[in-house]
Write a structure and sequence with these properties.
10 strands; single chain; alpha+beta; five-stranded antiparallel beta sheet; 12 helices
């Protein structure tokens, strides 16, 4: 029997059917579902009468082939009774349009079977689920694409930043190399006389070490300044740190370029002191044996809490000072200073104790002494006011490597090589050193 409750919800017009709008399928889509349902379920989950089945078949013929035309219809066999009945049902549809035929097929099927509506609803849920999953996949793909583009942009910025840093590095290295080439060349000729190939290798190694030591010193000094500046409790912005690093690089470039242009003069007021060069060697044992073989004057015992200052005047026949030093078992602090003076004096060694009562009463001085790793710029005791800091005092692992350095004479005066053991309360240090000048 027809389901009256379902039939009341249909209109005779396929265009305004609430069934189509409520169930979420177009007429064509719904007809396709109905046709599949009819072919799968006929004779199984539902049973139509012979007349009902003929009517539905006639509607499907109207949808697929249009109005019945005996001229174009294929011939039937004499005994094909069922085929003749189907043609009669097709002719009975008359002039109905394709959309009206589909609508009537759907309506008839829904009225005859209570299973059709749940079947359509299941397909609707499946379609909605597929649509939802498709949107999720598209969203994931979109997020992946956005992430990929963001990663590409980060990589592009990193590569651009790397190029800028490499350019800045080469500029600084070129400027430093112009300053130190003659010094390193002289030193390499002394180490490998008559061997230009080994001299070139050593010069390149010294230039690389000098660049790293120079930049490390610059950043350590900058870090020390930042740590001693009041921040008013405000957090440091990463952008400001990055900008600050760029400022440091520009300042280094400017200072190195100025030093390269200006050179070194004879008067303190008109001179700019060039940066010192420092590097290391691994032949600690051989160096100490060489110093011992030269005599005991270049071997000094620096007691606990003491510092030793070696005063080396500039020589009229020289243009550059070289120094080398190493220790037994433990590290030691080292710094280089220059005292502007026209007085002549011999090379001398001065031993001072850093833990005097005057210094103990100075909290700021004690705080700096207790953190020698940050770099001390305190002048050695007895230094005159017209003394400049060339290398702040830092702890050096001179028991593991030979520390070597050079500096172009800024003018006439006295170099002060300070070896600092003031931070050690228990251990004395044995120092091996060598100082000489080159033309």
């Amino acid at each position: 029997m027809p389901d009256s409750s379902n039939s009341e919800s249909f209109s005779s017009s396929a265009d305004i059917s609430p069934f189509l709008s409520d169930w979420g399928f177009t007429l064509k889509e719904l007809y396709g579902l109905a046709l599949v349902f009819f072919k799968d379920k006929d004779g199984k989950a539902m049973h139509f009468t012979y007349e009902e089945r003929l009517k539905l078949i006639g509607l499907t013929c109207q949808v697929s082939q249009g109005k019945f035309d005996s001229q174009t219809a294929p011939p039937l066999g004499v005994l094909d009774v069922i085929g003749k009945d189907r043609r009669v049902a097709w002719q009975a549809v008359g002039d109905k349009s394709k959309s009206d035929s589909m609508f009537e097929f759907i309506t008839t099927l829904n009225n005859q079977s209570k299973l059709f509506k749940p079947y359509v609803e299941a397909h609707k849920r499946d379609a909605e689920d597929k649509s939802r999953r498709l949107k999720e996949v598209q969203l994931v793909e979109s997020e992946k694409e956005e992430g990929y583009q963001a990663a590409k942009e980060i990589q592009r910025q990193a590569e651009a930043e790397k190029i800028i840093q490499e350019e800045q590095k080469h500029r600084i290295q070129d400027a430093l190399n112009r300053q130190t080439f003659e010094q390193f060349k002289t030193y390499a000729e002394q180490q490998y006389p008559g061997n230009p190939e080994q001299q070139g290798v050593l010069i390149r190694q010294l230039q690389d070490q000098h660049y790293e030591q120079y930049m490390r010193q610059i950043y350590q000094q900058q870090l020390f300044s930042e740590q001693h500046c009041p921040t008013n409790g405000e957090a440091v912005d990463s952008t400001s740190v990055e900008d600050n690093q760029n400022v440091i690089v520009q300042e280094v470039l400017a200072s190195v370029d100025n030093e390269t242009r200006d050179g070194s003069g004879s008067e303190h007021e008109d001179s700019s002191i060039a940066a010192a060069s420092m590097w290391t060697r691994k032949d600690v044992k051989e160096f100490k044996e060489s110093v011992r073989s030269e005599g005991g004057e270049a071997i000094i015992k620096v007691g606990q809490g003491e510092s030793v200052t070696v005063r080396v005047p500039t020589h009229e026949d020289g243009t550059c000072l070289f120094w080398e030093f190493a220790t037994d078992s433990y590290d030691i602090g080292f710094g280089l200073f220059f005292e502007w003076t026209n007085a002549d004096e011999p090379v001398s060694v001065h031993v001072t104790e850093e833990n005097s009562s005057d210094e103990e009463d100075d909290p700021e001085l004690n705080a700096i002494q207790q953190d020698i790793e940050r770099g001390r710029e305190l002048l050695p005791k007895g230094a005159k006011p017209n003394t400049d800091v060339i290398i702040p005092v830092y702890r050096r692992d001179a028991h593991q490597e030979v520390y070597v350095g050079s500096h172009i004479f800024p003018g006439k005066g006295v170099y002060l090589l300070k070896f600092d053991n003031s931070y050690s309360f228990w251990r004395s240090k044995t120092l091996y050193y060598r100082v000489y000048y080159t033309k």
